[in-house]
# Entry
Amino acid sequence: MQYAIKKLTMSDLTFFQSQYRRLQDEARLAGEKGSKQKGINLNADVFAERFFPAARTDGQRHRFNIPVSVYGPGLSSEAQTLTRKVITAGAGGKNWRLNGELIPNPEFDIHRYDGLRSGDLVLIAVGGTTEPISMSLVLLSQTDPADATIFAALANSVGNRRMSVISEEDLNALTASAPLGHPIRELVDPDLDEALEEAAAGSSEGLQRLRRRGSPRRMTAEAFREARLKAEATGIGGEQLMNDWLEQELSAGRIRSYKWFAEDNAVNPWDFEIEDLNGAVRRIEVKTTRSGFERPIQISQAELEFAAEPTAPPTDLYRLYEYSDGHAQLAISRDIGVIAKRILSVVQPLSPQVRPDSYTVAVNNFGDWSAAQTIKVEESEPE
# Structure
């Protein structure tokens, strides 16, 4: 997902049926024709230049029919989902536009959009890499008390611009003070996003957390596919960070050698092997999360089996948490063979036809952890 904040103009309000009619009535009373626009402008400096530059390379005008889910304003948390069009500017054009049929007030909330006014905000979340494939809108009213805190934070972020990009990290920080029932949490909630990633990886605990909190957007097949891809990207990013850090350890003379096994063999049941200064070999299994240290660890049957091998080098668990590109916190549990054997001893008596693929394990089950340290890899300047 990519995120943008937009200040709604009078022209943008025409996308909503009740607003379009209100503005037409006001224009007639003033002896004017009124606006012909029926859509929301999507500023080119954001959508064409930042989000989807590949969609305009041929200079043609494109139409993308996508599902659009609308939340808010206020505590209107039930999504109104419709299909609408994103239209690119084409050669010589400027802004893109979200339009199609006017959006009526939903039957389950017949006055939802009546109070919108110019200067209100909309948080836009758009899916897709080379072109838009889905969009969610969270409307924020400058006069609704339920929106007051988050409106002030996002208004300060967008400043004097009509539309600005906001990172997921910054958005998480700004929306932390939103009421628990606020619809923006359906769009942005780190705890629910983490639960979704865990559920997509097969964690029953993650699925239970999703069901308890309730999040229709995160229960779709598309959401699960995106979560799996995000979890994979986090895992790969964590391994890359660990590789860069081990390279620094090698250069500093703190280890004799290391090898990144998982880079060449994605199904290898451990990620790295290092040789310390005494010549002893140890395996490393890296587990990465963007969340905190206490988040349960997903570990596979194969990883446990190889860690439990009596003649194999000891396997150390390297927990990377609060991970972001280029840095993370690191804690280490040395030689997880004992806990691996303990878990395997429970499942071994089961019938040979019953074989677990993976486990969700609380971090305290891995015994003592080293003191946390920050690992950070600085990008070198090109020569």
Remarks:
- The chain has a mean pLDDT of 89.
- Residues 234-376 form a domain with the Trna Endonuclease; Chain: A, domain 1 fold (CATH 3.40.1350.10).
- Residues 104 and 110 are 9 Å apart (CA to CA).
- The radius of gyration is 25 Å.
